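Batch manifest line 893
LIGAND: MGD
JOB: complex structure
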Amino acid sequence: MDAAPAAACRAVKTTCPYCGVGCGVLATPAPDGSVDIAGDTTHPANFGRLCSKGSALGETVSFEDRLLYPEVYGKRTTWGVALDLVARAFSETVAEFGPDSVALYVSGQLLTEDYYAANKLMKGYVGTANIDTNSRLCMASSVAGHRRAFGTDTVPGTYEDLEAADLLVAVGSNMAWCHPVVFQRIAAAKAARPSMKIVVVDPRETATTVAADLHLKLKPDTDVALFAGLLAHLEAARAGNAAYVGDFTEGADAALAAARPWTVASVAEATGLVEADIAAFYAMVAGTDRTVTLYSQGVNQSASGTDKVNAIINTHLYTGRIGREGTGPFSITGQPNAMGGREVGGLANMLACHMEIENPDHRDIVQGFWASPAMVDKPGLKAVDLFEAIHSGRIKALWVMATNPADSLPDAGRVEEALRKVPFLVVSDVVANTDTLRHAHVKLPAAAWGEKDGTVTNSERRISRQRAFLPLPGEAMADWKIIAEVAARMGWADAFAWDGPAAVFDEYARLSGTANDDTRDFDISGLAGLSAVAYGAMAPVQWPVPASGAPRTRFFANGGFYTPSRRGRFVAVEQKAAAETPRRYPFRLNTGRVRDQWHTMTRTGRSQRLSSHIGEPFVEIHPADAAAHGIEPASLVRVMSPRGRILVRALVTDRVAEGTLFVPMHWTDQTSANARVDRLVDPVVDAVSGQPALKSSFARVEPFAAAFYGYAVSTRPIRTERLAYWAAARLAAGHALEFADADPCDPRALAERLLGTKDLVGALDRTAGTARFAALVDGELVGAAFFAPRPVAVSRAYVAGLLGERLPSSAAILAGRPGADQPDPGPIICSCFKVGANQIAAAAVDGAGTVAAIGDVLQAGTNCGSCRNEIARILSSMSVEADEPERQLAPAG
Ligand SMILES: Nc1nc2c(c(=O)[nH]1)N[C@H]1C(S)=C(S)[C@@H](COP(=O)(O)OP(=O)(O)OC[C@H]3O[C@@H](n4cnc5c(=O)[nH]c(N)nc54)[C@H](O)[C@@H]3O)O[C@H]1N2
Ligand SMILES: Nc1nc2c(c(=O)[nH]1)N[C@H]1C(S)=C(S)[C@@H](COP(=O)(O)OP(=O)(O)OC[C@H]3O[C@@H](n4cnc5c(=O)[nH]c(N)nc54)[C@H](O)[C@@H]3O)O[C@H]1N2
Ligand code: SF4
Ligand SMILES: [Mo]
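JOB STATUS: finished
ARTIFACT:
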């Protein structure tokens, strides 16, 4: 059933493998191996839209850098040898040290079928709940908050509610960059109905705050105070829904009692917001029935993450704004199958189909259904503890699938030590080189997006098919199949004898309906019994899909919670006192994402289009802090915590508050010298959910005394030597490298080594201390390198555009920027049409004063639309610094 490669050149309907919006994609493979990508106009998540990452999917499906064959201890081997070894090592470890001595660490980027197989193997057959997922870093606080309030992990609403809301409050979410298509749907709704209001709660200005009617730039981790104060205000303003509270909820009194001490003045004190803004926000919420509160990592990734979630949900229960059109709390999911993983019980404290490990009835249902020989009866280790348990010797064999913990877990240096230390490490991945794979004893080549078949569930509970449209390369195998093969070798062939993903899905659907009778929200028994053909043709569908009983789109408008009393629960929450700032680490370090990269860049990093937006790791630092520390714009900065240090580019901007920093999570040792931000991050976790507080470590900064800065382009990969700083990016015609070092260099000699040729033209300018070299073969530019004592002031877009081109003379390239007759495009804003900031500014000067007008004259923003907010920001400020020194960084964060 795996991957019948599509008949030549037919469009295959599938689902985007990046964010939790879950957009439908039409993929058309061409005979030359390329793939044409378009949005699926029939898919209810996106109706044809795709963002920049989705649009560039075709650039990421090549076999370059793929892991194509199994490897054992560094040598290529057969599947038989690799699978036998994994099964034997796990079996022997369990026999000698017990089931809790082995672990799986999996991912919201697995398909539901993969996830189900992994969970069944561990919780029902090996007999341990030591299977956790990177969703612990992502959604665990939302899961815990949902379970406290609803008795189950339900997102009650839909994307249509976001459009139908009169007030959309986005908390700790940069959705313009991280959930661009949902954001575009909201922006379109607001354009059609300007009375709709958007409030964004974020300590930082972002591409999302640009679109807000009100931006509450609060102090980090003070959201509980803001929402507890809101609850108190709703009571005082008599905006509650007494009937809803009385009929369908419990615990309101305690929550209100905890909230009442908050006044606008004390909230202002706690959050650092001005009273007028708080009062305006509270009045908007009190006066707007159709309110949706959408939230993501600024809420979840916090030591008070679960309390933040419940502080938000309390306000919806109190007003009865839940489960009705245009209302509700809305936890938006990160990964393509974050939601599916929660459904199948991927977390160490859950069973499959939203059943609970601690509940003996649930355990019996699952054990009976699986006929499992060794059912778990207690929760397993959560991600951070799991890696710590390697250090203490408890975990002796670990299998990592579809995640890159060496880069994405907090205190990543210690995680890497654990990976080095664990006696047996298996890693299943699709690419050949990651920071995690380099420690693997066994490497297993997994089928990638486009080659694998199965289902994912998006943020609005919609299950969609991912379909294969490419043949399996090398010996790659689907993840569920790899797991089933290992299970069979451990002695459980019958229980894992599925003949394809349809059979796995069928088993899962049947389990969801077993002994359910609406005692559990997650029921897709109506999808059981699909033939392989029907499964192949399955249209996107929102759960629940019970075999009997009415389907429904939303939850809880009339109660029906899944707590023992069937009432929704208020949770009394307290704002935690701010942790004391250590004297030597005075900055709060916030981390997160940029528009065009996905996590550790193993796939998006291959796309030149995506790399043209932001091509380097950076730290956002306030101008006053930069001045106080002698940090110049675009210079290099060391950011340090007690756990580690990184070296990144300074982005001096008042988008961040004084005393705070923001660093993206994307750059790894594969793409940079020393920019893995999680090496700095404290492994502090939320006490309820175990989710790490990835957005609030303490750090300090220091300018880096660079002897020189450099920028190089080449048609071939550029060597990086032992430079203190480098960051590599893809270009249309090759590669780019930003670099610098503390020790002076001989520029010509270094240029020769970086570009791998001695055949250079160019010159040193001793007075300016600069040097410029170019390598031309038959008049065609194959490489260039620029050196300067300060950040190199050449136009990246211009130089990159000449690579691989035939040049009339070397003068054009050595100037580093276009002549007066050809304006410099500036940093790329629209990656679809390669339109730079300077072009947008120039068009605006010529009269194109709106985003639409810019689209008319430059096309910018007219394809995926992900850059529209950045264009709006340029238009509103018109203060783009053209160059000097030109930054790779786009102007809107
Ligand atoms: N381009 C892109 N899109 C992605 C991803 C990607 O890697 N790249 N990853 C996907 C995944 S898995 C996820 S989980 C989502 C994440 O999506 P988001 O949660 O939107 O992304 P982040 O940038 O991690 O963080 C969001 C915001 O939280 C703010 N924040 C920090 N501390 C606080 C606080 O104390 N309170 C409040 N209110 N806000 C705070 C940050 O300043 C930041 O702007 O994105 C998904 N989409
Ligand atoms: N400081 C900081 N750290 C963070 C965050 C943050 O905001 N700040 N965010 C956290 C969050 S929300 C998340 S979700 C995590 C994400 O962190 P990770 O999950 O570690 O990041 P990815 O780069 O998505 O790693 C996925 C890996 O799986 C591989 N892969 C892709 N498809 C498949 C497949 O089908 N099968 C297999 N076997 N492998 C595949 C990819 O090549 C890649 O190596 O990072 C977390 N870490
Ligand atoms: S919004 Fe972008 S990344 Fe997210 S699913 Fe849609 S196309 Fe993919
Ligand atoms: Mo995530």
